[in-house]
Amino acid sequence: MYIGYEVADKIATITLDRPEAANAQNMALLDELDAAWTKAAQDESVVVIVLRAEGRHFSAGHDLNDRWPSPEEITLEWIYGAESRRYLEYTLRWRNVPKPSIASVQGRCIAGGLMLCWPCDLIVAAEDALFSDPVAMMGIGGVEYHGHTWELGARKAKEILFTGRPVTAAEAEQAGMVNRVVPRDRLDAETAELASRIAVMPPFGLRQAKRAVNQTLDVQGFHAAIQSAFDIHQTGHGNALSVTGYPILAKLGEMKAKIE
């Protein structure tokens, strides 16, 4: 079991519970996470959903030791199918759950970690939170749920993609990606306080407010852009398969292994 789940006072709390691996996402974790989101969405007693993580870090992204077949078996068709389901369909479904959701983020939130917090409606970040997407070094222009431009604005999005450098919690708040930045030891309490304030609101009003904002973004092109960028992302995989054979995965793995 990689996911914790509990409900109290109209709030469903979903917890990433793989701290020994910095909450890196293997396929089992993502499947369990999707099941937890579905459970919360279907539970009529739940008004607000909180996504949090155990340990020092929110998520080190995809587990590079888990997601690939052997080199002689891997194909672009396999990659497209696996990523379409777990990285695109899951994240868009979480985004559109008709209940307010809050991501509570501490420590590192790397690449695939962004795909867990960005679908949430609100983000509360600890002061030590760092958000990054270094996958351009793989010849890929960003993770599969390409929310960068919408979350950070075009120029800041290009900066983190071109350089791979982390964005601090303070920078993320200034860009509008993060709602609140709080001391690390207050993260759970501040997130719970915000969730409790929302939980007393009428569920139908919350649902309609969320739908109105999400549909406004969709009219502006959000959904189409995410779908299009996903296909662009796959060309990076195709290039890596035909030219490099993914040796860079080892370097990314080494980088993540250094996270304490």
UniProtKB/TrEMBL annotation:
Instruction: Please give the InterPro entries that the UniProt record associates with this protein.
Output: ClpP/crotonase-like_dom_sf, Enoyl-CoA_hydra/iso
One Pfam family in the UniProt entry: ECH_1
**SUPFAM superfamilies in the record:** ClpP/crotonase
Tell me the PANTHER family matching this sequence. Answer: ENOYL-COA HYDRATASE, IP11341P-RELATED
Q: Which family does it belong to?
A: Belongs to the enoyl-CoA hydratase/isomerase family.
Q: What is this protein called?
A: Enoyl-CoA hydratase
The organism named in the record is Prauserella endophytica
